[in-house]
Amino acid sequence: MTAWEETLSVLVREHGQRLHRTAYLLCGDRHTAEDLVQEAFVRVLGRRRGAAQVTRGMEPYEVEAYLRRSILNLYLDSYRRRRRWAGIRHLAAGRDRVESAAARTEARVDATRALAQLPPQVRACMVLHYYEDMSVAQVAAELELAEGTVKRYLSDGRAILAVSLAEPADADSSRGGAR
User: Fold this and answer.
1) By C-alpha distance, which of 125, 116, 98 is closest to 164?
2) Where are the domains of the chain?
3) What pTM was computed for the model?
4) Is 70 exceeded by the pLDDT of residue 113?
């Protein structure tokens, strides 16, 4: 095994699962998360020369941060492309798929589904702050935003999630009322 292959193998083994979890929280889909992580590894370390250049003199957490930033960029770029396409899709194509009535009426709401309701920048801030346990300053640096903007995104995200994850008002009555 060459030095490049060994470097890549170590990076995937040591950081792959954590990067995959972060990507999953961003996009809410296991397959898309796998694609994001794979694409990040390919872009950052795809050329044999690239792995040595990127990792030379870097601590393991720095390499992980570099890959995580690549995942964030890929996620946000794909969101922008989808949003742009949504604006002109009706000019070129018919409806992609029809959801069943059962899927539309499903009442169960979980954290992944609630995260999916958040705008991409808000979602990225929430995932980095709460899942990656980054401070507001670290999130701001990672996303190249002002700290006040990050605080606003976190506030907006908490408000949206509070509504999405709140128990229905009749849940108290089914448990025997308020205490």
Assistant:
1) 116
2) 1-89, 107-167
3) 0.52
4) yes
